[in-house]
Specification:
This protein is an all-beta fold. The chain has one domain: 6 Propeller (Neuraminidase), CATH 2.120.10. The chain is built from no helices and 25 strands. Strands 6, 7, 8, 9, 10, 11, 12 and 13 form an eight-stranded antiparallel beta sheet that branches. A hairpin with a 5-residue loop joins strand 14 (216-224) and strand 15 (230-237). This is Exo-alpha-sialidase. It comes from Bacteroides xylanisolvens. InterPro entries: Sialidase_sf (IPR036278), WD40/YVTN_repeat-like_dom_sf (IPR015943).
């Protein structure tokens, strides 16, 4: 696979949203936190409201953040299709979260802190104020240690589904402590009541998977298959030199169990980093924006390569096609466009990125510890031919 790299950044075929200063990343800057503050931008999520406005959230992590006590999530609105943004609220006690709109209310689901309780909050005023998950009838869904990211909620077979990872195990080592699981609830139920939610069993880390190359699974996407089944598609951590693969975990339609066959790993570009998968009824394809590894960086750990975003799609979740590189920077050490969350909007894709990039204070600390959250648009994505 060959790419043409122009100047310092390839942005194709993104709409030019506004002129950018030399020290600004591509797209529209929603928020910027200088790296010297030792707190970083994480977990971007985006939602389109019924009035057409966009809502975006992000949290903060790092040494001077409160991620291990009571994490902070900030909420922003755009009333002009992403051209400008305004912060409208701050949530104390929300981390690794997804925004979604359902049955006349805006929700956010995630944990209350790093490896915290699973919590759900509701807003009845489009994100200005939020409920407090103080007990099981008001959004405290699961107590304990859980991990997740801004991955989609699925509406399917009369239920709402969401993948999470149980984070209590025999070890506290990153990756090895994560077990795959799913929660779900009937669509017509009170989602704030934990009693309406069903939790599956959890599938522990297994060091024997991938002939011993399996290092973790995490940040799962609940997706409906072409045959109507429910699966949890997970990011997989692998060592350097190993091709990127995802894991496809089967979810019982009753919502009470998950299962996995060791043969259900499938090649997927960018699958060693967080990704979001959504189904498009027009093309009848699954789409994702992934951190594919450029050819020149194939021999380093795929988890550490986040400087390129590629649009990919699949008919069956198992075989993926590349369409276009939409963001790229030649430096992979201090530049990254990662944890992309996105939505279809008519013929376009809109997305937000946890972006590590140059600024007037010395730039990002590294590619992981992002100093920006940015908004982007891909116009007429269905017209893009696969490589």
């Amino acid at each position: 696979m060959k790419y043409i790299y122009l100047l310092l950044i390839l942005v194709f075929p993104l709409k030019v949203l506004r002129a950018q200063p030399v020290d600004s990343p591509p797209g529209v800057v929603i928020n910027h936190i200088p790296a010297n503050l030792d707190r970083f931008i994480g977990s971007p999520s985006i939602c389109i409201l019924p009035d057409g406005n966009y809502i975006v959230s992000h949290d903060e992590f790092g040494p001077t953040s409160t991620e291990f006590k009571s994490a902070i999530t900030r909420i922003y609105v755009s009333v002009d299709k992403g051209k400008s943004w305004k912060r409208i609220s701050q949530i104390n006690g929300q981390f690794w979260s997804t925004l979604f709109y359902l049955n006349g209310a805006l929700y956010i689901i995630g944990t209350n802190k790093h490896h915290g309780n699973l919590v759900l909050r509701r807003s009845d005023d489009y994100g200005k104020t939020w409920t407090i998950p103080y007990d099981g009838k008001n959004g405290l869904l699961l107590e304990g240690e859980y991990h997740t990211a801004p991955t989609p909620v699925l509406i399917h077979k009369g239920r709402i589904w969401r993948a999470v990872e149980y984070a209590t195990a025999r070890t506290t080592k990153w990756g090895e402590r994560y077990s795959a699981m799913v929660v779900s609830a009937p669509l017509n139920s009170d989602l704030m009541n934990a009693g309406n939610w069903t939790r599956t069993n959890h599938l522990y880390y297994n060091p024997d998977y991938l002939n011993g190359s399996f290092q973790a699974w995490l940040e799962g996407n609940v997706v409906a298959t072409p045959s109507g089944e429910v699966v949890d598609v997970l990011r997989v951590q692998v060592p350097k030199g190993h091709k990127e693969v995802m894991a496809l975990v089967k979810v019982n339609l009753s919502g009470d169990s998950v299962s996995f066959a060791s043969s259900d790993f499938y090649d997927m570009p960018g699958a060693a980093k967080k990704f979001t998968i959504r189904y498009d009824t027009v093309t009848q394809r699954y789409w994702s924006l992934v951190n594919e590894v450029p050819d020149s960086l194939q021999q380093i750990s795929p988890n550490s390569v986040r400087n390129m975003v590629t649009l990919v799609s699949s008919l069956d979740l198992k075989k993926w096609k590349r369409h276009k590189v939409v963001l790229f920077h030649p430096d992979h050490l201090r530049h990254g466009f990662q944890y992309v969350d996105w939505l279809f909007e008519k013929n376009d894709i809109i997305f937000v990125s946890r972006t590590a990039y140059d600024d007037n204070t010395g730039g990002a600390k590294n590619n992981h510890d992002a100093n920006f959250i940015t908004f982007h648009r891909i116009e007429n994505f269905r017209a893009m031919t696969a490589d």
